[in-house]
Input
Amino acid sequence: MKSLTVLVLLAGMLGCGAPRTEEVAHLAALRGVRPRPTPARPVLRPIPGPVFNLDTAPDVDLRPQIASLNLPVRSQGSRGTCSVFAVTFLIEFGMAKNVGATMDLSEEFLNYAKNKATGVLTDGGFFDELDLGYETLGITTEAALPYRAAFEPNLGVR
Output
């Protein structure tokens, strides 16, 4: 799950938390993977001096690249779908940067795919759940399934 690694790194950059242990175990169970025994926690010893100096770290500002790619800026409204919007934007950014295709993708479908893949009908989700939905069902365009003002768990599909 290479994309999950990228999503977890992005979560850290955005200030969101990494997947919790029970979420990882739940997703592993969905995939038919037996959880490994949790190893004993290592003893943490302080390391003298700064490991990473924020004063000399290079700043990265993607805004000029994002503007040059003409990617859509969207509002999630009052729904709790910030992680869905972040992951959808990452897919759009990756497509625009690596393939040269600027597309407006469906946050609504990614949220639906996450629900179908996990079997849990909730609005929004954790990055690993969204990754599982994307890997399982993919994504479609905003034109095919527009974002809705309110959460509809099954989108009218039975």
